[in-house]
## 1
Amino acid sequence: MKIGVLALQGDVAEHIASLGDCGVIASGVRSKQEIESVDALVIPGGESTTIAKLAKAFGVFDLIKSRIASGMPTYGSCAGMILIADQILDGGADQEGFGGIDAQVRRNAFGRQVDSFETDLTFAGISGAAFRAVFIRAPWVESVGTQVEVLASFNGHPVAIRQGHLLATSFHPELTGDNRIHRFFVDQLCKESSKAGI
Amino acid sequence: MTKENSTQTGTSRVKRGMAEMLKGGVIMDVVNAEQARIAEDAGAVAVMALERVPADIRAQGGVARMSDPEMITEIQKSVSIPVMAKARIGHFVEAQILQSLGVDYIDESEVLTPADYTHHIDKWNFTIPFVCGATNLGEALRRINEGAAMIRSKGEAGTGDVSNATTHMRAISDEIRRLSSMREDELYVAAKELQAPYDLVKEVATTGKLPVVLFTAGGIATPADAAMMMQLGADGVFVGSGIFKSGDPARRAAAIVKSVTFYDDAKVLAEQSKGLGEAMVGINVADIPAPHRLAERGW
């Protein structure tokens, strides 16, 4: 199982470290060849508009889109969540993502940096203490389709969702040193799909 | 269920985390909404709203201050990416005003005329994170001790001459490497020499890096300049006058963005360096009399 972290822009190293803590050797991927070579992908936090523009400029946008559509396990945090949602609200006029999860995600919904926060969350599917979640100019999920499972919410807004092989969080587990969500991705989404032979 | 009372804003993790999200990106100086939109379209991760770019501050002289809040608000309305703004060194009231406007980061900047020649702003008092310039590791750690959540190595702003940025980036990484190679009992004297708190010195020695994101700034004018700073260890790049003082800002901005992502791929860099039109004219740092060098402001 090879997991890549999309390395166009954002906190790539933190995701690689979190996956490393789960015993997975992940690497940053930018080129077509690198993206084709991985079995699963993490789209990091960063600036969603920048990541999408770079993906287009370097000709990997459609590749990522089609790999996500054809079952590649993918986890997106913050900007990554925006990019793998089918619909982006409050994006730029021409903002486009890879899509995949049947959900509407509102960009910067929790406000500007002055409103950024950390809090304790209950996350369905991981056990133990509450998860300390860091939200930075974070999006929230406005609405979800029937196939989407809500794993965590804050103030009535879903902030962690899953649809089959796709996982998205509004917050940044990679910044906390708590790797339970990365482990959940590796154990529940990546291993499941490799068993199914995708 | 969610424990509401556990919710905190303005923590170090939230402030430093914001800078983590900017890594591998380019932050561009803009003076109006139109430039901000060009920067966003080119793929900037954030814009820095200011009244005059450093090249103009240098040319026109006089006291350079925080920008008009009206202009900052205008820029905030026109783009969806983060908007930063500059306060004068030590001018904590300018910082209070910028925080009330909801800017995403405050740059306590030597490009503006300092308001206090002894003290920097006590940045722990703010919910909003700060980025500060540094020419060496000691200066960087002093700023972090005052609450800076991000550091940019200083270059000589408004010149298009990258040499100072190179010097300072090398100085910071050289001093970090030196600390990493020291015996633990040598760190006390190292802290004294760096004029920095022992705890931060020890942390850097152990981890081999700054505890916050390190960008670079000042004098970056071309895709090659930006890529060189990345290869020297910067997490990302600020570009000031280099874009909007050039012949074709939109194109140059996009080329610098791509060059920061593929900073170690000379083929991509060659492609991005093609046909960009005229770069900003530039001034050699050596030709600027010492009292007019901005990088030397800050203590």
Note: The first strand of chain A starts at residue 3 and ends at 6.
## 2
Amino acid sequence: MSLLDGTETQTYDPVRQDLDATSDVAASHWPMNAWYAAAYDVEVGRRLTPVRVAGVPIVLYRRVDGRAVALADACWHRLVPLALGSLEGDDVRCGYHGIRYSPEGRCTHMPAQQTINPSAAVRSYPVAERHRFVWVWPGDPALADPATIPDMHWNDDAAWVADGKVIEVRAGYQLVLDNLLDLTHEEFIHTSSIGNGALSESDFTTTHDSASGRVTVTRWMLGIEAPPLWKYLLSVKFPDYRGPVDRWQIIRFTAPATICIDVGVAKAGTGAPEGDRSQGVNGYVLNTMCPTGPKSCRYLWAIARDFATDSQRITTELREGVAGVFAEDEAMLNAQQAAIDATPGYDFYNLNIDAGGQWARRLITAMVERERM
Amino acid sequence: MSLNVTRDWQVCTVTRNERIATAVRAVSVRFPQAPPDPVEGGHLDVQVMVNDRPEVRSYSVVRRDPDDPRVLVLGIQAAADSRGGSLAMHRLAPGSRIRATQPLVTFPYLPSERPTRLLAGGIGVTALAAMADTAARRPPAGGYRVTYLARSRARMAFLADLTARHGDLLDVHITDEDTALDVPEYVRGCPPDTVLYMCGPLSLIDAVRTAWSAGGRDPQDCRFETFGTTGRFPAGEFIAHVPSLGLTVTVDAGRSLLEAFEGAGAEVLADCRKGECGICRIPVLAVENGVIDHRDVFLSTWQQETDAWICPCVSRVHADPGGPGVVHVDLP
């Protein structure tokens, strides 16, 4: 019987109670049947790299042929982290008593006895590499379809140039989603780079699609003065232009943890809102979160652009510029989580600017409900 | 018992209980909320009343109810020598409350792209059905097949389900219908690099492991679970003698050597109690009027042939005609 059809509202329901508890702002919750970007491609190699994916300890490495592997980071025998062990070909040997596992998690060697215990194994998680990220599926392996990995193709598309970094945030991933789904904060946190008064003065639209788990927040700011970073980027393509711009931010959330933001400015009145962006510059801010715990996450991001694609200088400047902007967000998010924890029993007050974040929370909760009933 | 999860006991509700084959019933159990654990190769530990005393029994999870992830289906056979646990489960009416753990995975299914074979003998099908279901939902690139053996069709639990699920990928072999499995031929027919999962009587497992090694295949690719209840010979009474303690115990057919020692107050370390972990193995000094029926999978074939050790949780003495069989052991 569905929890959503209301037929059980009069009876005590432990699942409902549990979801109420986990939708508390103090701690993020997440579905297990989802792809999470556990690491950047360059973070995974011929070495043992421990991460947490959806709160689960996992060790990442690459086989000799380069394919990525994700094993539970706890030896079957005494639960020590396999990341403290060593690679032997495609296998991992535990650093404590030498028990060895294949990339599928099967025990391949057990010292001190002539047989291998039939139950000896660690969980091996489905892995897929796409858009420069190593994605791990922590839930039911039979449901892991790489076709459902969120589209972040701008990160490795020949027509775009992109680069990014990883931030270990000491705040739940849902707080990061809130941050990215309401960019009015730019006016106050990021005053020296991308913030200006037009952000909170302009109107926005929020749409959602429950079936595909998507939320879109669209904001156009027409005929405004470009903020400092955008003024510089527009000058790279149009060195002589000094006039007003039409600016856009189209935020696309894909449940549970990915946000791609289509951003840019164009010379005012040249048709950008109608689809002609030829007189402007376009970027994509790519963000995907791996919940490492209820109050922490790995935040993987990249900034992509479709102009001056042959300029390494712009690539470095943009990556470092965005890193500086995100460091400002990180400081606020860490402080927010600490303040939430220091204020138990209080809930958020939601304003109209929070519509995007609230839709995202609802879609995530629906995914969790479907898993647990 | 050897497991790397802590048991989380919960009060569950029996939602269905139906006969599905001779001496086998499918019992559906609803948890307060869906256990997040995988069910492939998992069992529940269940508290059952045996002679008015609570005891713990383990039953394989056959599947999760596709319409309600809180409901897990168990397949329970009332064995002829049942000590009462399975009969108590057979009698549970829908609505009954029972205490059960989350799924405990002691026979993990490790999805891979390699050719995959699942081999079930008799009630062993309950340990493989969920794996077979997962293999069907996410077929390995190398393909999979399910093989199900039984003495008679009437004893085959979940046969209709498996037929509907796997169609041509299911092979059925029934002794009473003269279609018994030729094990060496079966193993030869497995493609190179096959991973085999099997559960069934020890005689089947032994035959497959022998053919597997003879074919030069890697032993680690032959994965199996035993319920620790079958051997090369039927269980019979025998005597165990511990000279260092001056202790002699009679082990009747319904008890293990380990239980006999424990009943006599002897100190023996044990853990898995199904012949896998080897922690209970003790040195054998001599055997009289019989042979050791090694029922464990811890000792290698070579180690078993030397009769230097016995795993008392499962292994027994099979007495010669005229017996009684006696094993002299040490309890260090």
Note: Chain B has a mean pLDDT of 91.
